[in-house]
């Protein structure tokens, strides 16, 4: 049995991963939360809930004693806060004797083009420094690329994952792409990512720092072509990389971002800015990740993007 602590464990992606871990019926899961625990300490699913203060390293260390693996799912628009809390969690994990750690990654390989993900680069450096000289904390950067589930919007195949309209909108037969749409992109289902994390808990070798996984390696143009095959015609609006770099989005529409961390009064502004940053990151191949975990877990069969999206859109012309 592996004892797992999940920081930010009430989030939608975290809950998908937790469900995959619990499905193995052999591990113990503790969710760390900043909110008061109003219900039972152990819920009907067998998850133990513990309120923590990430600014208090001594108490955090105490909570983590006896824990084998820490999975972090922090998401916060406050850069200073999320960096501080992440570093404190790493320090407390080391002091508590935690064996393995996964920082809040769960997406792209390169994050500096995405302001809300920029903290991840600093945390990677902090983990490297933590192990400078000797190994103090084994860790991996779980990177699935982009969740292919988004392209099924508004149809969901998961229990917790929060859907939002994507830049390739299968439902409304439209897409937004940079002039050069041959950028490489990795697509993986949320379900596969959760399954890989659950399998990684039992992996007997050392966790690799590069924790990429691939459901499908493809390009934006190929995803749009798949949409055409499944949905018929697609109206594609092209944007220039120069306009994106200038902070300009010259399109007739844009996806709306609905997420608990986005204030309603800022949704329109943030949705536009996020799309600009995202398209820029796609053009720079930031969502092209490795297949490290595919090789380490050869028995796991990943669902391809075509399989997943055909299951949703086939016959719905």
Automatic annotation (TrEMBL):
Keyword Nucleotide-binding: no
Single annotated GO MF: oxidoreductase activity
Record-annotated NmrA-like domain positions: 3-232
Keywords on record: NADP, Oxidoreductase
Similarity remark: Belongs to the NmrA-type oxidoreductase family. Isoflavone reductase subfamily.
Name assigned to this protein: NmrA-like protein
Native source species: Botryosphaeria dothidea
Lineage, highest ranks first: Eukaryota, Fungi, Dikarya, Ascomycota, Pezizomycotina
């Amino acid at each position: 049995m592996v004892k797992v602590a999940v920081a930010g464990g009430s989030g939608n992606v975290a809950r998908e991963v937790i469900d995959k871990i619990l499905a193995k019926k052999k591990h113990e899961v503790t969710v760390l939360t900043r909110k008061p625990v109003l219900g039972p300490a152990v819920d009907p699913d067998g998850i133990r809930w513990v309120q923590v203060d990430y600014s208090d390293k001594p108490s955090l260390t105490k909570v983590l004693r006896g824990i084998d693996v820490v999975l972090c799912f922090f998401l916060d628009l406050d850069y200073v806060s999320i960096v501080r809390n992440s570093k404190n969690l790493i320090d407390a994990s080391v002091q508590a004797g935690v064996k393995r750690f996964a920082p809040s990654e769960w997406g792209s390989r390169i994050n500096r083009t995405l302001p809300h993900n920029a903290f991840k680069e600093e945390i990677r450096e902090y983990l490297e420094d933590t192990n400078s000289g000797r190994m103090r904390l084994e860790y991996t950067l779980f990177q699935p690329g982009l969740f292919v589930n988004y392209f099924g919007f508004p149809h969901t195949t998961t229990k917790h994952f929060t859907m939002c309209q994507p830049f390739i909108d299968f439902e409304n037969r439209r897409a937004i792409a940079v002039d050069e749409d041959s950028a490489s992109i990795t697509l993986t289902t949320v379900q596969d990512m959760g399954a890989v994390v659950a399998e990684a808990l039992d992996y007997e070798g050392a966790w690799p720092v590069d924790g990429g996984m691939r459901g499908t390696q493809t390009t934006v143009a190929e995803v749009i072509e798949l949409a055409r095959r499944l949905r018929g015609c697609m109206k594609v609006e092209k944007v220039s990389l120069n306009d994106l770099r200038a902070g300009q989005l010259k399109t007739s529409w844009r996806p709306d971002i609905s997420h608990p961390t986005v204030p309603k009064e800022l949704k329109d502004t943030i949705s536009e800015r996020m799309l600009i940053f995202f398209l820029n990151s796609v053009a720079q191949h930031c969502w092209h990740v490795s297949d490290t975990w595919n090789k380490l877990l050869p028995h796991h069969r990943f669902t391809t993007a075509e399989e997943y999206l055909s299951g949703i859109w086939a016959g719905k012309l």
